[in-house]
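Box 3.1 A note on notation
Throughout this textbook, protein chains are presented in two layers. The first layer is the amino acid sequence; the second is a token string describing backbone geometry. Keep the layers aligned when reading.
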Amino acid sequence: MKNIFLLLILASIAIGMNGQVSKRDSIASEVNAYVQTVNRAAAIFLDRQRPTGERLKAIAPHAIIYDEQQVEQFRRVLLSNDEKPEIRAMALNKLCSHIEKDDAVYKQVVAWFANPETPKVLRDETLRCIGNLSFSTIVGVLDVYPKMVTDPDTPFRVFAISKLVANDDARTKQLLVNGLQNQGTALVPPALAIRLLDLAPKKDYYPAVYKVLQETNDQDARLAAGQALGTYPEARQKLITISPDPNEQEDFRISALLALYAGDKDNIVTYVTPILQDKSASPKLQATAIQTTINTRKTMAYRKSKKAQKADDYDRMIKDIAEGRGVSTHADVRETANKYLLLVRPNF
């Protein structure tokens, strides 16, 4: 009987192994078939006797070229002045991951990228390619970026500015600040300028942005300024007055609250409490307010602290809201209050 059981076990193992081998073979066969499909599509693209539309349509669905000989042929297409811009753009689309290994191609792509006179379809593809490569260590701060901060094509201008600001380029940051102070010199609209400045590691632009928050009539710029100033102590009192103010728009109140959360988590309950007691506060604002305190109080550090040994007034207010006795009985607010009780676990 034992031998029978052993044979059955061995047989089942063998069947399983054969099944795995069969599955691997099947996957390998599918991969090989797909590679052949791409190779055929690439051959169509490379055939200059075919119409442009047919060439583009054949290769468009395939992200990678597998055949090394075809890669070299795509390179020649990319660099050929006899090919249409649409064809050269498609060649670049398929070669982008290879260009860092080819100095001649790389220099040409950067030259097209920096030149506003490059045919649009080709230049747009250089932006996509360099944008993708910039997330790796392949592309750092290109020498062409400083002259591109005044590029006539907005996406290219914004891209160059963003890369320079992210690397704390003082000149570019000052140009953006100058634009906030004098719209006649602005490189981009004020709200976008503030969001771009916020990419900078060094926050020396805060005074200029705070002035925008205090003085501007541009609502988009004011909103962006409020979002950016959470860690700027001089702006804190202004944000404190915005978040509970029923005369402020919902977006401004939420942005001010989130900025306070970013810059002063230890006192977030103080900022949230009047919002949860305000009948005019929207469900979205109140739910957001509770969520900020969940994020602060659910941490193990808080739950092990002396403050968490016994439920406080805020915990009791959240319990009332969860049980439908709060200022707001909206489902979203009650759901977030219940989430607070579940994650924070106040000791009543």
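The radius of gyration is 30 Å. Residues 309 and 347 are 6 Å apart (CA to CA).
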